[in-house]
Amino acid sequence: MFVLAGNILWFYFSDCLKAVSETFTANQNIFGKVYFPRVIMPIKVVFSNLVKFSIQFSFFIIVLIYYINKGYDISPSLLILITPVLLIITAMLAMGVGMIISSLTVKYRDLNFVITFGISLFMYITPIVYPTSLVLEKINPKYHILVYLNPLTGILDFFKYAFLGSGSINLSYLLYSLFFGIVVLF
Questions:
Q1: Longest dimension (CA), the chain
Q2: Which partner from 2, 112, 137, 162 sits 20 to 30 angstroms from 79, CA to CA?
Q3: pLDDT digits (tens, 9 = 90+) for 140-161
């Protein structure tokens, strides 16, 4: 169940990042013929991936209800109501980083191959399928801040805690993710 909770949000982020990073090169013919704000295309990608996320999320809720009825130790909290905020922060991160990458791929076309590989590597350093506490147990306490430099860590910890009731949350890490998302987006 822990793996499923992290994967849903990760797939939304990675799909948005990959698609946004290809928008400027994929739509260069449209941009050359008609003038309109170029930010519309990345926003379109983020909203279209939201449909895919909602389907995955509904399956997650069904599985969550099944496990709760079976008596597993899962206790969702009222923090579930913050899920739209978590999605907005995730979309801001994906759109901001994706637009930076997309502007670079206009000049350096081969960067798309590196990005695909980089997203796969980024998945392993983000606590998606493992709890953050597991990483914090294994490393020296003075390096704990390095785990939270990843802006997705706070979002994923909050999401898992809200739906599963396990793990720990810290509001300052979520605020860091929000601040990082705003800075990267602008």
A1: 59
A2: 137
A3: 777 777 788 889 988 998 998 8
